[in-house]
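Below is a filled-in request sheet from our internal design queue. Each sheet records the structural input a requester submitted and the sequence that came back. We keep these sheets so that new team members can see what a complete request looks like end to end.

REQUESTER: design group, bay 2
PRIORITY: normal
MODE: inverse folding
CHAIN LENGTH: 81
BACKBONE (tokenized):
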């Protein structure tokens, strides 16, 4: 069975909910570059963009239980940013 990116993202989020730090690392590796570009464009300050990007992932880890599945994981990440 082939896994779609969306279902793979949801599995990563489920791993994070269970406390799997590797799941958080995998999600970070997948989305940090795009989030950094997004926050850098919004803030026009690379250092602040890096800080915000890190904060997004800290929030994702602490709020993984709040993800309700209505939006894609990537949409949820960018909404947090």
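RETURNED SEQUENCE:
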């Amino acid at each position: 069975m082939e896994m779609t990116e969306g279902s793979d993202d949801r599995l990563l989020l489920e791993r994070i909910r269970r406390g799997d730090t590797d799941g958080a690392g995998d999600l970070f590796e997948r989305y940090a570059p795009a989030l950094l570009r997004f926050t850098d464009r919004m803030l026009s300050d690379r250092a602040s963009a890096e800080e915000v990007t890190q904060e997004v992932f800290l929030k994702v880890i602490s709020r993984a239980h709040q993800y309700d599945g209505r939006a894609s994981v990537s949409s949820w990440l960018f909404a947090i940013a």
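SHEET NOTES:
- The CA atoms of residues 59 and 80 lie 8 Å apart.
- The mean pLDDT is 90.
FILED BY: M.R.
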